[in-house]
Write a structure and sequence with these properties.
The protein has 354 residues and is mainly alpha-helical. The protein has 14 helices and 8 strands. α10 runs antiparallel to α13. The structure holds tryptophan (TRP).
Length: 354
């Protein structure tokens, strides 16, 4: 079966505010689930590609947002820094607008049912499918030895989602393939053990891919210095990154915008008032736009738009106990659901109860 990709347009969601949007068909309750790596840094690409959607969805649906520390240990990382990275990820997402009153915000390792379901799903996952995953192939190619954890990463991701019977997964497009596999795992489990899991759908952000500021041929990435603006960057860092963004020496011969300038316009669309965007587009069309002006306006609008996020983040990180409390309470809520699903799964699989 083909993966159905649902594109959320801002207007679409707004017009339906307060009304139930039934992504999973009329009989399935919509449950939103997404996961975030504890990378310690959220940039504009992450925000526009996924997190901004999460913030909207939490007001409409039962929503779960999970910091995936067990996924993080499948890539190179520093064990002594991981706890801090996890707290930062919780704080950054709350600062970006996730509300612990609206959504269940928690840390994967604090709900052991994730790894338990992962093991059970191992038994219905074809190795060939895992080896086909683009993210796996990319990472495996760059390593001398490849761990089973790297290969099995998408099974844990499937377990994350299916544990809550998630039906809608807002992620960046790079995760679409993992979601396709999640659907296949759900189908195989259902076919083997009886109808249990809905097949979750992907929800992509309404912003096109945000490209690296200093190399618009590749995606914005935290591993490319100069490529990104982080949500928690200080004003000076934001101004500098934008000032150094790659543009061009004028429109291309065929009249189309170069990727670097198009990328700046995409970011402008996301953060600046409509009138500003119109004015800049108009100037560009007339050949009268000075990129220095575009960059200055964009940088100032970004500084202003990100200020509340930066402030909330600083406040939260100054009170790590408050952040821990958010994550603890989230885990307690998540666990109630996780336990129920796992009890059903164990029974269906034939695991003994003593
Ligand atoms: N693999 C995802 C990423 O790298 C993170 C993730 C883990 C996730 N579990 C998930 C995303 C479940 C959505 C749903 O971005």
């Amino acid at each position: 079966m083909q993966l159905r990709i649902v594109l959320a347009r801002t207007q679409h969601l707004c017009h339906n505010a307060g009304q139930e949007l039934l992504y999973g068909g009329p009989h399935v309750k919509t449950v939103v689930f997404s996961g975030v790596q504890p990378t310690g840094l959220i940039h504009l690409g992450n925000y526009l590609g996924a997190i901004r959607n999460w913030v909207r969805l939490q007001y409409q649906y039962e929503s779960y947002y999970c910091v995936v520390d067990y996924h993080a240990i499948t890539s190179a990382y520093e064990p002594s820094h991981l706890p801090e990275r996890v707290l930062e990820a919780v704080a950054a997402n709350v600062a970006a607008g996730l509300d612990p009153e609206q959504a269940v915000i928690f840390v994967q390792s604090q709900v052991p049912e994730h790894t338990e379901l992962c093991w059970i799903l191992n038994a219905v996952t074809p190795v060939g499918e895992l080896q086909r995953m683009t993210q796996y192939k990319d990472k495996a190619r760059r390593r001398a030895t490849v761990s089973a954890g790297l290969l099995n990463y998408p099974i844990l991701q499937a377990a994350d989602i299916l544990l809550y019977k998630g039906t809608l997964v807002p992620v960046g497009e790079d995760q679409a393939q993992h979601l396709e596999l999640t659907r296949e795992i759900a189908r195989k489990f259902n076919a083997t053990y009886g109808e249990t899991f809905p097949e979750p759908e992907v929800l992509l952000g309404d912003c096109p891919r945000v490209m690296a500021l200093n190399d618009p041929a590749v995606k914005m990435s935290k591993s490319i210095p100069g490529s990104y603006v982080a949500l928690t960057d200080e004003p000076e860092a934001i101004r500098e990154a934008i000032a150094r963004a790659v543009t061009d020496v004028g429109p291309r011969p065929d009249g189309t915008m170069s990727p670097g300038v198009a990328n700046l316009f995409d970011i402008l669309e996301a953060f600046s008032p409509v009138e500003t965007v119109e004015r800049m587009r108009q100037a560009y069309a007339e050949g009268a736009l000075r990129y220095a002006d575009l960059k200055r306006v964009l940088a100032e609008d970004l500084v202003e738009a990100l200020a509340p996020i930066r402030r909330r983040y600083r406040e939260l990180m100054a009170r790590p106990d408050a952040v821990r409390d958010i994550a603890r309470q989230g885990a307690a809520r998540a666990r109630e659901v996780a336990r129920t699903t796992l009890a059903e799964v164990r029974q269906k699989v034939g695991i003994i109860t003593l």
